[in-house]
Task: inverse folding
């Protein structure tokens, strides 16, 4: 039997940390909204990464993907 997990209770226990992290990201304005499929987010992110690397000598870019397939897509387009 799978034990019952109260996600709402778990969320409430870390809500202040989550809220602080979300506010920090929003305040930085350094994010790409992942709203709908096919709106060009990958190309926008690629352009931002390239521009960052081209304009800063010691710049680094971190790319997080949700799947190996998406990681391969990034690698092929990069």
Result:
């Amino acid at each position: 039997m799978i034990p019952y997990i109260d996600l709402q209770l778990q969320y409430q226990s870390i809500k202040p940390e989550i809220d602080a992290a979300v506010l920090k990201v929003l305040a930085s304005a350094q994010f790409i909204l992942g709203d709908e499929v096919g709106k060009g987010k990958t190309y926008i992110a690629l352009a931002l990464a390239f521009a960052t690397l081209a304009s800063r000598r010691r710049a680094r870019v971190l790319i997080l993907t949700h799947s190996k397939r998406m990681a391969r897509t990034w690698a092929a387009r990069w």
